[in-house]
Amino acid sequence: MKINTFKRHFREGTKNLVRNSWMTVAAVGAVTTTLVLVAAFLMLMLNLNQIADNIESDADIRVFIDLSAEEDDIDELGQNIGELNRVEEFYFSSKDEELEALVEDLGEDGEAWELFEQDNPLNDVYVVETYEAEDLAGVASTIEGFSNVDDVDYGSETVDRLLQFNQYARYIGITFIAALLLTAIFLISNTIKMTITARRDEIGIMRLVGAKNSFIRWPFFVEGMLTGVIGSVIPIALVLGGYHFLYINLNDRLNFQFIELLPWNPFAWQLSLMLLAIGAFIGIWGSVMSVRKFLKV
Amino acid sequence: MKINTFKRHFREGTKNLVRNSWMTVAAVGAVTTTLVLVAAFLMLMLNLNQIADNIESDADIRVFIDLSAEEDDIDELGQNIGELNRVEEFYFSSKDEELEALVEDLGEDGEAWELFEQDNPLNDVYVVETYEAEDLAGVASTIEGFSNVDDVDYGSETVDRLLQFNQYARYIGITFIAALLLTAIFLISNTIKMTITARRDEIGIMRLVGAKNSFIRWPFFVEGMLTGVIGSVIPIALVLGGYHFLYINLNDRLNFQFIELLPWNPFAWQLSLMLLAIGAFIGIWGSVMSVRKFLKV
Amino acid sequence: MIEMNNVYKVYDNGVTALNGVKTTIDNGEFVYVVGPSGAGKSSFIKMMYREEVPSKGHVKINHVDIGDMKDKQVPYLRRSIGVIFQDFKLLPKLTVYENVAFALEVIEENPRKIRRRVMDVLDKVGLKHKARFIPAQLSGGEQQRVAIARAIVNNPKVVIADEPTGNLDPDTSWEIMRIFEEVNATGTTVIMATHSKDIVNKIRRRVIAMENGQIVRDEHRGEYGYED
Amino acid sequence: MIEMNNVYKVYDNGVTALNGVKTTIDNGEFVYVVGPSGAGKSSFIKMMYREEVPSKGHVKINHVDIGDMKDKQVPYLRRSIGVIFQDFKLLPKLTVYENVAFALEVIEENPRKIRRRVMDVLDKVGLKHKARFIPAQLSGGEQQRVAIARAIVNNPKVVIADEPTGNLDPDTSWEIMRIFEEVNATGTTVIMATHSKDIVNKIRRRVIAMENGQIVRDEHRGEYGYED
Ligand SMILES: Nc1ncnc2c1ncn2[C@@H]1O[C@H](COP(=O)(O)OP(=O)(O)OP(=O)(O)O)[C@@H](O)[C@H]1O
Ligand SMILES: Nc1ncnc2c1ncn2[C@@H]1O[C@H](COP(=O)(O)OP(=O)(O)OP(=O)(O)O)[C@@H](O)[C@H]1O
Ligand SMILES: [Mg+2]
Ligand SMILES: [Mg+2]
């Protein structure tokens, strides 16, 4: 292709956007609205995912130490635990600290138990955190085999349930995003297809005048790309601006410790890039696919 | 309008769907995909809402009875509570039952406490449920004024937080549904507008031949309505079938007691009716609005 | 009766298509409009059924100024005028039959009567056997004849034809002219823009010759020609 | 050289437009195709640039059977043939200039050369001053002349014209005919379907007369007419 021809295609593609103004508005509008939806949903899902991760990573193993264990034994146990390679960190919590925490946890119910402080029936404890929630069970059973361990508890039931629930939530989320993206692709390429079908006569005339198919296709390629890119401007602005706003305002309000939003930078930028890519891709794809139909001899 | 003319409009509207087959496919496709999305989201949100309601209604007030209270005093207190008109139901739980429940709640941690069964430091308790979670605070403070009440606890902090969180979730949900509906309306009327704009020449010719605007508009009205109705068939089928499937399969698996899906009948039917109405309305609206533009002299 | 008084038409792009046109066409007249390509013949004709409105001056149909006409009345004006457009303006998705019937459906004519009348007219223009075809399946001349059939189907008071024989062979042209003469004989005004010297010179009628948006000659029983 | 051998064309709806056509047109010839409306003139012409393919029989352009032609080669065939369509087929969104330039852009001609050549041709058909208008802003005859300009702009080996003067007044028609004669004088084949008795009888060339999808007369320096 000559450079002049390439320039011509680009010029034509751009001009076509202006010439078919109402179609451009419709196609860009479809891209914009669906991408806004995709963006909003992605922001929600990725953050929920993050929150789920945080919850999981809060889970830990409690190693109850034999009441008979001496200080040396306890240190040795600690060393053994520290050598396990799936363990991220661990700390020691004496039986007095445990009682205190328990009393606090129980709230007003717990006050009654303060009377028994002198006669603390609890064990000293090692609290162990693993890198992944999935490792809890394995590490726990390993530690159970160490000496001076009275019992090991990692809230197996609760954690398992939580893991399962998160898994469900993720499946639902992924299904939803996939559905949304498919819908977006369908709607956008549908709209572009319509704008092009409305120009089938034009394409027919070009062919009758001796234009090669590739010659006809190129300006539509450019046009589709521009449609997608222009259509992603507003969604990107919303992501960059809107997420900033949400991040500033919501992060403080959500006072459950385990809820923390993904940081604006780089998250908003990554998402924006993704939207731009989706927009351009769908634009080109819808455009080229639709033209193809009319280029059959 | 003569009856013959009315029949003609209906016939024309139907024929137009067939004549402009690719436009029909595009418009019906847009209605279908957006309504499927709306339906899926409505199902999700309304169920989450229901779950939130359930969680809230699980909250209750625990009335700790004075250790010194006699059986008569306890009965009297019960009667007083029963007379409060925001109270839905309440039951008595002896200090032994309380200890048992506590030990169970604490799991393996709790075993240590079983030793102290002979020396139970807990109070007898009335557990009170109100009709609405919002009434908890008021009822609690009333009961606090009754005699023989040692203390009242309704997990004020937790419940307040939960209430607030549900409120947030609902706002987000409503915003999302509104956005989705607006997007659907925009996309569908956009698509219909395109199918009609592609026929602007046709409309122009009709006018030149002496057709009144109302005469031109009617078949488009019928066409828009049919587009909307046909477009809502698949979403409705998905709701009726898909929700049935989900209800049967998911309701058992979700073994958290507080999660319970809305019953298939009437929920799925109501949602279907709603989708049909939305489809027809948007179809007519998009169609008639778009034609209007070309009926200006 | 159609009266034009000092009518100017300047299109959006600045082209002056009518440059002070003044004329009167009585009911029942048969008028040729001739002139070179781009003279303003079509623009002149478009004034009469209000496809275009004058930029200056007045156009009156039966003493009603179409400039003052309410939008609601325009359809009624157009129903009393059968127009054959230079580019046919057939509805591409409708069959020949439906295209012609449309002009009668618009006036909410009785369906049975529509059927009879449409078939009559299609027979007249020689297209009865192609009633079920859509325009894209017709030859150029056949499309033109469908346009003619649609224009005369509801017995309008005025028939306006913009080069109704441009795509027709001489024989078919004469047949169409015979139809116009018939229609004119029943009192219908016929106004026809044409480039056909043959027709104008053989069937002598009033000739309005235009050039550069002006009427340069207006002669009864005139000849083809537009040099002044 | 264009050869047709026993060519039949039956459209999807069952209409037989060509009913066994056999003829040869040599390079550099000037041929009129005449016949009544619906005779098959346009169908005959459409075979030559492969807008339609024969239902039976063979069409050869320079000894290449267009039935065997690969899809990829069709654009090249069409570039060597300038076609004036009966319904003009102008691109409605492009200006007059762009419409004509398109035929040169397609062959990736040098932009500067395009500009010069397009303005030359527009001048020839008398539309230089309307280069920036879009088709909807032109009169019928002006649109037809744009179509003519586009057909001859890239000096094709064959010019095919389907009623190129249908919307033109006699004076403009003669000018267009002069252009065709000029083009023909440089060795270009000209094939022209027409209803104009005047032109055929004054500028005497080969006449192919058609009726009912068949060639009923084929005469050198013939007269207008199609009765056998
Ligand atoms: N819609 C329009 N916008 C701008 N200019 C126009 C429009 N319609 C016509 N013109 C211009 O007005 C002039 C007169 O056009 P008109 O169609 O009336 O000519 P005409 O006499 O009918 O020609 P022809 O015999 O070729 O049909 C022409 O120069 C044309 O370019
Ligand atoms: N695409 C098509 N589909 C079906 N039938 C067609 C099609 N094109 C033409 N015809 C039919 O084929 C016959 C010949 O048409 P054609 O266009 O070749 O005639 P023509 O000689 O060019 O007539 P005219 O002088 O009116 O342009 C006509 O009867 C027409 O109805
Ligand atoms: Mg004209
Ligand atoms: Mg033809």
TrEMBL record, chains A, B:
Task: Name a single GO cellular component.
Answer: plasma membrane
Stated name of the protein: Cell division protein FtsX
- Family, as annotated: Belongs to the ABC-4 integral membrane protein family. FtsX subfamily.
State its location(s). Cell membrane
Q: Which NCBIfam families match?
A: FtsX_Gpos (NF038347)
Q: Which GO terms describe its biological process?
A: cell division
- This chain is encoded by the gene named ftsX
InterPro entries on file: ABC3_permease_C (IPR003838), FtsX (IPR004513), FtsX_ECD (IPR040690), FtsX_firmicutes-type (IPR058204)
Its record classes its membrane topology as:
Multi-pass membrane protein
PANTHER family assigned: CELL DIVISION PROTEIN FTSX
* TM spans (from-to): 21-46, 168-189, 220-247, 267-288
Q: Which UniProt keywords apply?
A: Cell cycle, Cell division, Cell membrane, Membrane, Transmembrane, Transmembrane helix
What are the FtsX extracellular domain coordinates in residue numbering?
Answer: 60-152
Highest taxon above the source species: Bacteria
Tell me where in this chain the ABC3 transporter permease C-terminal domain is found: 175-295
Organism, per UniProt?
Alkalibacillus haloalkaliphilus
Q: Give one Pfam hit by family name.
A: FtsX
As for what it does, the entry says: Part of the ABC transporter FtsEX involved in asymmetric cellular division facilitating the initiation of sporulation.
Main location as per UniProt = membrane
From TrEMBL, chains C, D:
- List, alphabetically, the Gene3D superfamilies matched: P-loop containing nucleotide triphosphate hydrolases (3.40.50.300)
Q: Does the keyword Cell membrane apply?
A: yes
Q: Which GO terms describe its cellular component?
A: plasma membrane
Major subcellular site? membrane
Where is it localised? Cell membrane
| InterPro entries membership | AAA+_ATPase, ABC_transporter-like_ATP-bd, ABC_transporter-like_CS, ABC_transpr_LolD-like, Cell_div_FtsE, P-loop_NTPase
Record bears the keyword Lipoprotein: no
Q: Which GO terms describe its biological process?
A: cell division
Source organism superkingdom:
Bacteria
Gene Ontology MF terms in the entry: ATP binding; ATP hydrolysis activity; transmembrane transporter activity
Report the PROSITE patterns cross-referenced here.
Answer: ABC_TRANSPORTER_1, ABC_TRANSPORTER_2
- Residues passing through the membrane, by range: none
Q: Which SMART domains match?
A: AAA
Q: Which residues form a coiled coil?
A: none
| Keyword terms, alphabetized | ATP-binding, Cell cycle, Cell division, Cell membrane, Membrane, Nucleotide-binding, Transport
Topology with regard to the membrane? Answer: Peripheral membrane protein
* Known function: Part of the ABC transporter FtsEX involved in cellular division.
Q: How does it assemble?
A: Homodimer. Forms a membrane-associated complex with FtsX.
**What protein family does this chain belong to?**
Belongs to the ABC transporter superfamily.
What name appears for this protein in its UniProt entry? Cell division ATP-binding protein FtsE
Record organism: Alkalibacillus haloalkaliphilus
